[in-house]
Amino acid sequence: MDSIIIRGGNRLSGKLPISGAKNSALTLMPCALLTDEPLTLRNLPRLADVDGFGHLLNQLGVSTMIEGARPEDFGRVMTMRAGRVTSTVAPYDIVRKMRASILVLGPLVARAGEATVSLPGGCAIGNRPIDLHLKALEAIGAEIELAAGYVKATAPGGRLSGGNYTFPVVSVGATENVVMAAVLAKGTTRLENAAREPEIVDLCNCLLAMGARIDGIGTETLIIEGVERLHGATYQVMPDRIEAGSYACAAAITGGSVELVGARAEDMGATLAALRHAGVTVEEKRDSIHVSADGKLRPLTLSTAPFPGFATDMQAQFMAMLAIADGASLLTETIFENRYMHVPELARMGADIEVRGRAAVVRGVDKLNGAPVMATDLRASMSLIIAGLAAEGETQVNRVYHLDRGYERLEEKLQAVGADIERVSAG
Ligand SMILES: CC(=O)N[C@H]1[C@@H](OP(=O)(O)OP(=O)(O)OC[C@H]2O[C@@H](n3ccc(=O)[nH]c3=O)[C@H](O)[C@@H]2O)O[C@H](CO)[C@@H](O)[C@@H]1O
Ligand SMILES: C=C(OP(=O)(O)O)C(=O)O
């Protein structure tokens, strides 16, 4: 199994390209199920999860074709075509590896009149229920059956009706699923307290390009007028705000100066505000964001929240950065009950962190020490990379497949800005 070795202490400096967003790609790809015409996605990141999603689509009868990808390029162009949906079942073997598989439920039931998806269950960061996906789909006319680890959704008469639904809590995944289902419904759908993450805006814009009718994009009220059919389109995946934020933390912890090329500041308000409060200089440019830091970082009080709040997907990376800040920080995780799997590993590197329920107190230490570590989820793994970049000595991050799910060619990007980092294969 591969691991990543980092010899810490190098100050990061230079330009670092930001890839297409994983969390956008994984909700844009299932849109291919909504039309028999080709959907082409540009700037699709080269990630294990994108490959996995392509594989799932293939099983459902969608052809996937990658165009002109040169090994040296970041991202690629993929054309997907669901001329005919040949299966309406997303099996356990695929779903268990990739929770985003649940996002085929809405588009499949909308297009094929039925969908059967294995229940994704919990994962390392918590329970991750899907009850709101199902309630929202019911509200727009789907009949839901749960049996033997599967959920089956059926559209009576072959087409969903549309309807109204108010989310009791903001859910990114449930909003995505029901929006993709509602675009082909007979009537109008009104969603209240919908998620307004930039990835949801990206999804809605792609659906508009395919001929959907959606109002209120970027607000908590989405009104979707169903159309008879959608057509093909070409759409550019948005830049990854979490990847950009992660590399900003990496630059800051090393006292570096890095230009995040392609990063979009308007998607990153809470992250950039937090960096500035910590004493990082952030310059928003036309097509990039420049971050630089010198001297001690200041401690922060942060609480995760749906967009435009501070993203749960940035919590672990900030925790690593704040491990060497000048004082005590307080982080509160409100989205997932168990997203502190990185804490014991950071502690092995010398961090002083105390978890009390959903809160974590991070008392800044003078320095971190390299150590062999491993994490059980994607952002936790990234927090260990960030800590390793600043640590004294060598850090070995194991279970790198988590990183391969969400960071395109991580070592290469970090090497290019001066990190001493390499991937080693344990054979
Ligand atoms: C609001 C939020 O920050 N969502 C994050 C969540 O999206 P993801 O789509 O995975 O999760 P949701 O947004 O649906 O979850 C938000 C909250 O709603 C609860 N819930 C969700 C669905 C459901 O059917 N029932 C239910 O109770 C969850 O337990 C959670 O507390 O994880 C992704 C991966 O880390 C992040 O990119 C998203 O930013
Ligand atoms: C947890 C994440 O993603 P996933 O839900 O795909 O595991 C993430 O992007 O931080």
UniProtKB/TrEMBL annotation:
It is found in: Cytoplasm. UDP-N-acetyl-alpha-D-glucosamine binds at residues 99, 128-132, 313, 335. Pathway: Cell wall biogenesis; peptidoglycan biosynthesis. It holds the Pfam family EPSP_synthase. It catalyses: phosphoenolpyruvate + UDP-N-acetyl-alpha-D-glucosamine = UDP-N-acetyl-3-O-(1-carboxyvinyl)-alpha-D-glucosamine + phosphate. Residues 7-414 form the Enolpyruvate transferase domain. The active site is at residue 123. Phosphoenolpyruvate binds at residues 22-23. One of its GO terms (cellular component) is cytoplasm. Transmembrane segments: none annotated. The modification 2-(S-cysteinyl)pyruvic acid O-phosphothioketal is found at residue 123. The keyword Cell cycle applies. Keywords: Cell cycle, Cell division, Cell shape, Cell wall biogenesis/degradation, Cytoplasm, Peptidoglycan synthesis, Pyruvate, Transferase. SUPFAM superfamilies: EPT/RTPC-like. One of its GO terms (molecular function) is UDP-N-acetylglucosamine 1-carboxyvinyltransferase activity. It is an enzyme of class 2 (transferase). GO terms for biological process: cell division; cell wall organization; peptidoglycan biosynthetic process; regulation of cell shape; UDP-N-acetylgalactosamine biosynthetic process. Its EC number is 2.5.1.7. Belongs to the EPSP synthase family. MurA subfamily. PANTHER family: UDP-N-ACETYLGLUCOSAMINE 1-CARBOXYVINYLTRANSFERASE (PTHR43783:SF1). Cell wall formation. Adds enolpyruvyl to UDP-N-acetylglucosamine. This is UDP-N-acetylglucosamine 1-carboxyvinyltransferase. The lineage of its organism: Bacteria, Pseudomonadati, Pseudomonadota, Alphaproteobacteria, Sphingomonadales.
